[in-house]
Write a structure and sequence with these properties.
Elements lengths: L18 H14 L5 E4 L21 H23 L4 E4 L4
Amino acid sequence: AIEAKGGKAEFLAADLASLAEVRSLAEAVRARTDRLDILINNAGVGTGGQGAKRQVSADGYELRFAVNYLAGFLLTSELLPLLKASAPARIVNVASA
């Protein structure tokens, strides 16, 4: 729908449990475009159910904290200059409980 209206949309994959991959994702975005109109942080990891073992991220953080909070914060921080230069850009953070 975006491309049909003359816009550009692209999918980039990254493991958001790795802060290095989040930084690489931001670098890939900056390399592909000089404009970013919207950033949607929509990633999350659930609890794994009752009795599930604690999991850690590639960086040693509790997995849910790393993916659900740190990844979006870091990606936003890394892309903020691009978003500001693209004003009136938007940041959308999606969360659930």
